[in-house]
Amino acid sequence: MSNDPPVDRQRQKITEFIQLLPLTAEIAGLSQADVGKHFNEGQMEVRGTTLRNAFKLARQLAPEVAKLMQLLPVAVEIAGLSQAEPGKHFNEGQMEVRVATLRNAFRAAHQLVLAIARADNPADQEAGSGS
């Protein structure tokens, strides 16, 4: 990658950011604006900084869960993480706890999917009970 032209590296980083955006957004846990209200420029800047910090954490978690990214919606449900209160943001320590919770939720989601796959395949159940 160090021999790639700067434009290619920039494209790779943008692609990585977009691919990790669902995970990044879950780690950031940003609240939505109240109906009829909009964030001002300063608030959006803080939200952008929060997303940048969450992206750094998502990049650390991504190698562990790359094969399981399709399980993100299930992991999010299992984790049950709350969003930040309106006008507030999670700090770096809180986001690290969210990452740890998501890591555990990915494991649980993986186990859940495996259990469902086994339950739906009678041949596997018979082979497993005959051993």
Q: In what range is the share of β-strand residues?
A: under 5%
Describe the biggest sheet? none
Sketch the topology as an H/E string, one letter per element: HHHHH
- How much is the radius of gyration in Å? 19 Å
The residue-averaged pLDDT reads 88
What's the number of domains?
1
Number of strands: 0
- Spans of at least 5 consecutive residues whose pLDDT stays below 50 are none
Helix/strand/pairing class, anyone? mainly alpha
Gross morphology is: globular
Outline of the structure:
By secondary structure, this protein is an all-alpha fold. It has helices at 6-28, 41-65, 72-79, 92-119, 122-129.
Question: Would you spell out the secondary-structure blueprint of this structure?
Answer:
Elements: H1 6-28, H2 41-65, H3 72-79, H4 92-119, H5 122-129
Main features:
131 residues
Explain what the structure shows.
- This protein is an all-alpha fold.
- The chain has 5 helices and no strands.
- It has helices at residues 6-28, 41-65, 72-79, 92-119, 122-129.
- The model has no long low-confidence stretch (mean pLDDT 88).
